[in-house]
Amino acid sequence: MADWNDTSRNAQRLGSVPRAGGEVAGRYDEGLRKYMLSIYNYMASAVLLTGIVALIAASSGFALAMAGSPLIWVVMLAPLGFVMAMSFGLHKMSQGTLNLLFWAYAIVMGLSLSTIFLVYTGESIAVTFFATAGAFAGLSLYGYTTKKDLSGFGSFLIMGVIGLIIASLVNLFLQSSAFAFVISGLGVLIFAGLTAYDTQRLKMQYDQLRGSEFMGKAVIMGALSLYLDFINMFMFLLQFLGNRE
């Protein structure tokens, strides 16, 4: 025991103990960066796939044909079904199945979003997309780097999303442009907040998940969360910046 204490004291004098701690911290930081980059890569790839599918569907005339048929309701409601299946079946599905559903969801969402090309000009859609990308990057960076605990905003933001859904359904009957403008403004703010909140939440989850078999599934579900934040913020922002055909 005496020899161990002497060795420890000598190591502290030489600075080898802090180096060991630094190595552990370095490995932790490296693992965290790898985990978050995997989430961002999945999310960015899904957004790209959605955009490509939307462009192809719009340019081929499929979007126009779909808009005039009952198929539009299937395509619009299908993404919700995918999200529910992935959320409720998370622990029962294999990672491969979850991965397949994630990419299928991105494709179906592309078909659903292809109809925006029938309403807005391509230029305004592109401008809004890049504006959303810039805002998303800044908000996600804030969520990743801030020392402020954003967890307290989670319940408030989720309640805001539920309120947006109810308000949107009510406005289907009211058809009020002023009410739609208010909904769009609140939607941008709520999903901007969720972008920062979800980024911090995913970062904090790494402590609990690292080294576990669930890590792969967590990456996919984390990418899904950020993907939803991006797409919804884009859609609400498009109602402000989009020029109608």
UniProtKB/TrEMBL annotation:
- Major subcellular site: membrane
Question: Where are the membrane-spanning stretches?
Answer: 42-65, 71-90, 102-120, 126-144, 156-173, 179-197, 218-241
Swiss-Prot/TrEMBL keywords: Membrane, Transmembrane, Transmembrane helix
Instruction: Tell me where it resides.
Output: Membrane
**Top-rank lineage group of the source organism:** Bacteria
Can the keyword Chloroplast be found in this entry's annotation? no
Instruction: Look up and give the membrane topology term.
Output: Multi-pass membrane protein
> Does the record's keyword annotation contain Lipid biosynthesis?
no
What the record says about family reads:
Belongs to the BI1 family.
Name of this chain's protein: Bax inhibitor-1/YccA family protein
State the species of origin: Erythrobacter fulvus
